[in-house]
Prior knowledge:
This protein is an alpha/beta fold. Helices cover 38% and strands 20% of the residues. It folds into 2 domains: 7-143 and 328-364, Nucleotidyltransferase, domain 5, CATH 3.30.420.40; 157-321, Nucleotidyltransferase, domain 5.
Amino acid sequence: MSASPDLYIGIMSGTSLDGIDAALVDLSQTAPVLVASHYQPYADPLKEALLALHQVSHNELHQSQLIANRLAHEYADAAQILLKKAGVAAGSVQAIGCHGQTVRHRPEHGYSVQLNNAALLAELTGIHVVGDFRSRDIAAGGQGAPLVPAFHDKVMRHPDIHRAILNIGGIANLTDLPPNRTTIGFDSGPGNLLMDAWISRHQGKPYDKDGAWAASGKIIPALLQKLLDEPFFAAAPPKSTGRDLFNLAWMGRYLNGGESPADVQATLLALTGDSIAAAIQRFCGGAKEIYVCGGGAHNEALLSHLRHALPQCHIQKTEVLGIAADWMEAIAFAWLAQQAMHLHPANLPEVTGARHPCVLGAIYPA
């Protein structure tokens, strides 16, 4: 007799600022089952407002709260469309796990800010909401990120094969799953965000489809080396990062102004690929299988770069393990919501650097 469904919604809007991923997930079995999914792009004015909040500006506290309210409405719309697609009533869903939109990540100062009005989201949907997943881990001395490695550890381990899970969103992060050893996870550096920002500036496109523009240019070795000299890359885990460090202003300090834009794009792709490869070689030594998820999993030029840099590793998308590359993080936040609702610790101190396991998230009852 099969178990009754244990339905949760995971909502993720990541560093890429492209939009909202919403997943309805059945967590009644060992392996999560994706029941339905919905992607909702951000309108340009909302994206621009969110980007502006990454910088200190006039009246930013007021603006951030207005945008949090706006995001709650966007998240509620996404959840309702998702439920309509699935033919599932809101009352059948245990909770929504909503990460919110990160606008500042400064764990070294004891905080990380994800915009969302979780109380309003609960009011709009009639479903319990779990939000603010990072603060408890940071309170315990951790980075508050990355959070998804705990989910990878739960559902993607192999008893005999050394695997690593590579998520390439705006920021790239790794989960190392060595058999019979402790899981570690960390941010390796920029994923798509610098490439997305550069092509947006020069071609007005949101991203470089298949890495085609980068493939048309040539890597600038001197620029690449200057970028790779950033101390973050040499730092040992636990570590996390975001737009606070990696942004076009940071990259622009190393430009002389005469570079071909396509060559800069090629160099930014190499920066992402080389920093990931170096992190795998240094901190995930012995990994035989790399499974890729996130938007960068569709960048064929980047995957080719990684395969060339890591010939000892078999690199595939996470679909072969039963979890679609595009929905990994949204599914993970559904799982994180389930852990919170049952008051189960969901951080991995070896990943975040926290002093002890913590129950993550604040619960807002419907």
